[in-house]
Amino acid sequence: MNLPTIYLLRHGQTEWNIEGRYQGRLDSPLTKKGREQARDNALKLKKYIDIDKVEFFSSPIGRAKETALIIADELAIDSSLIHFEEAIKEFNYGIFEGKTKAYCRSEFKEIFEARDADKWNYVLEGGESYSLVTKRLKVWLKSIEGKDTIVIVAHEMINRALRGIYCNLKSTDMLKLKQPNDILIKLENGQEKIM
């Protein structure tokens, strides 16, 4: 694939991040710290991009959308230019969504352990696997081939998969990737760099 340079951001901290809840397709509001992280990430981004020459994409889920709108406001970008893209919605956690990790580990013990043993292929009831997410993202990435530079505001699991695809990582290596809410990552020429 002839992929663009991608500046990859995760939404700001949410209330459920603090509570250790699986969010997935559900949503919780950004905290004060999360809104500050979005503003700080906008300032980081401003150092590296020509605002008039990039396209902005965001997950349409509330926490990512709010983060993208804060970034647009900080950078004086017309928010109507942001593409709210269904294909980069967060990983669907199915029956785990809205519940704490501790609760799922206890109340869905067998499911939790089965998924933990094979996160790449295990499909949660009502949810999806990393394998399915990766297929979804590969289709979307084909739609942005040939573009020069884009900014994406999404989610940790989605960004993990995007980084894995972009850098051609093995699934085992991709699953180890982390992205705190205040980190800007640049993907370019099949490699990534923390900015």
Q: Count the helices. How many?
A: 8
Number of strands: 6
Rg over C-alpha atoms, rounded to the nearest angstrom = 16 Å
The run of helices and strands is EHHEHEHHHEHHEE
Low-confidence stretches: none
**CATH-level-2 architecture:** 3-Layer(aba) Sandwich
Tally of discrete structural domains: 1
What features would you describe in this structure?
- This protein is α/β, with parallel strands linked by helices and 195 residues long.
- The chain has a single domain, classed as 3-Layer(aba) Sandwich (Rossmann fold).
- It has eight helices and six strands.
- The longest helix is centred in the N-terminal third of the chain and has 17 residues, at 32-48.
- The model has no long low-confidence stretch (mean pLDDT 95).
Topology:
Blueprint: E1 5-10, H1 15-19, H2 32-48, E2 55-58, H3 62-74, E3 82-84, H4 101-107, H5 109-117, H6 130-143, E4 149-154, H7 156-166, H8 171-174, E5 185-188, E6 191-194
Parallel strand pairs: 1-4, 2-3, 2-4
Antiparallel strand pairs: 1-5, 5-6
Please outline what is shown here.
The protein has 195 residues and is of the alpha/beta class. Helices cover 41% and strands 14% of the residues. It has one domain: Rossmann fold.
